[in-house]
Amino acid sequence: MKELWVWPDVPDKNVVTAAIEAGAKVLVLSKPEDVKEVKKLSRILVAGPEGDLKEGEDYVYVLIKGKEDEERAAKFAPHVKVVVETTDWTIIPLENLIAQREELYAVVRNEEQAKTAIKILEKGVKGVVLRTSDPDLVRKVARVLEEEEETIPLVKVRITRVLPLGLGDRVCVDTTSLLKRGEGMLVGNSSGGMFLVHAETEENPYVASRPFRVNAGAVHMYIRVPENRTRYLCELKAGDEVMVYDHTGKGRVVYVGRAKVERRPMLLVEGKVNGKKVSAILQNAETIRLVKPDGNPVSVVELKEGDEVLGYVEEAGRHFGMKVEETILEK
């Protein structure tokens, strides 16, 4: 999810409260006394005098009036967050800078500018800095960013083998969000092939639903997280970000509230799509479900050869969770 910074023209309590409640990551303030007042309300990051982010050290503001300003914005150290504002709201400087910088933030004044900034060159800026003193506009722009979803092409995976295994350690990922029917997490033995494991939204005679949870599988497996990265399931802890997807491939960021590792009987599930193998090791229980192409869940204990479920494939190759181009063979 793109970051939201709020830069109030007049930092009154209404706009500050709206920013905090909307999930803004940073407030930009110019007076030390304003910083102190905000810190009484929330642990939100503040950019400015006596704030958490220091101008010239952690971030810089560049008003782009011409090519010279654009070139100056491109030359700051890679770790510095560069906040740029264009005098006539043209996207050309942003297009040029997006190709050169990761830590790029665009000053915007309304919803339409925010929508444009996060879509430029498909990649978009890392975040928008909303200059306003209108609490309603803060909430509107926050919704724009929240609705900005990563969409990936899920594929139909035809099941080729389901094999009960012995005991193993599996991870339940409990999130701070309520997941919906048809949503789940992408996990797999390989980052090049993953299954969409459904959230525990379904009730049965033995256990109640746990719509905040995905019983994601064995500790060694990969899980997809934001920015096209992966993590090992065993690494997850409270506060981490993970991705959840619906059956159309639309994804959103959720936060881990708890990751539970418990020893349970396991099940190897394998499938193929266009000759490429997809596999995962999941808990052998009725409550663990994959997702059918129509979005309906199907329990792993009901899977049989020839069934189709949803998955995701790409060329395998990751280094510390980041995608790399390399020759790799995973079995």
UniProtKB/TrEMBL annotation:
Residue ranges of every copy of the 3-dehydroquinate synthase N-terminal domain listed in the record: 1-144
Gene Ontology biological process: amino acid biosynthetic process; aromatic amino acid family biosynthetic process
Domain of life of the source: Bacteria
One GO MF term attached to the UniProt entry: NAD binding
Domain 3-dehydroquinate synthase C-terminal: 157-331
Principal EC category: oxidoreductase
Family: Belongs to the archaeal-type DHQ synthase family.
Stated name of the protein: 3-dehydroquinate synthase homolog
Species annotation: Thermocrinis albus (strain DSM 14484 / JCM 11386 / HI 11/12)
